[in-house]
């Protein structure tokens, strides 16, 4: 499993961000090939102080190759290009292989 995480600092217009993200951006995301699961939240908090991020998005792919293919696909390029339409605070994109823990 490979995870892609997008961390969004606070935008200039939080209401626009929320509305655009749900109405326009997420439908584009769901069209990415190889996407296994996704989730997001606007309720980012920290244990102390102000949270450095306004929103978070997580996507799961079978492996790094599937994630790279999805991001470089026409749909993935459209998703990337769309970020400027709502994320005035920018976006931090990270990805990593997921290691399963044992309980």
TrEMBL record:
A Pfam match: EthD
Domain EthD: 11-88
Top-rank taxon, per record: Bacteria
One function term, GO molecular function aspect: oxidoreductase activity
Protein's recorded name: EthD domain-containing protein
Taxonomic lineage from the root: Bacteria, Bacillati, Actinomycetota, Actinomycetes, Pseudonocardiales
